[in-house]
Amino acid sequence: MIVAFSISPSAGDETGGVSEAVAEAVRVVRASGLPNETNAMFTNIEGEWDEVMAVVKQAVDAVAAVSPRVSLVLKADIRPGYTGQLTAKVERIEQALVD
Q1: Distances from the Cα of 10 to the Cαs of 4, 65, 75, in angstroms?
Q2: Where does the source fall among the domains of life (predicted)?
Q3: Residues whose CB falls within 8 Å of the CB of residue 14, separated by 6 or more in sequence, listed in order
Q4: Number of domains in the chain
Q5: Where in the sequence is the domain holding 72, given as residue range(s)?
């Protein structure tokens, strides 16, 4: 499965920024060893249900350590029997664009 998620603290720093708290969540994801990527809006992670959800919970806990309230947006693509889809899905779209 692939999960796209976004975590943010309820309040930012003195400039309204949330990058330090979000970076803590991304550190958790990267340390998990699961395939992942981060873009301007979401972090994507691929793996089995239990391992992906455990990482999402750890990432939420990391943000909760610096904020009394945390927002989580999560979208999942559940397709049993498929792996490597974090890149394969994009490759199929790119190929369709040149066909």
Answers
A1: 20, 12, 20
A2: Bacteria
A3: none
A4: 1
A5: 2-98
3-state helix, strand, coil in the chain (%, to 5): 45, 25, 35
Across the chain, which has 99 residues, the per-10-residue mean pLDDT values are 93 68 94 96 96 98 90 96 92 92
Q: Tokens 């809006």 map to which residue?
A: 41
The whole-angstrom separation of Cα 36 and Cα 30 is 7
Q: C-alpha dihedral over 16, 18, 21, 26, to 10 degrees?
A: -170
Lookup: tokens for 31 = 């340390």
Strands (E) located in 1-99: 2-9, 36-38, 43-46, 70-77
Residue corresponding to tokens 């309204």: 16
pTM of the predicted model, to two decimals? 0.88
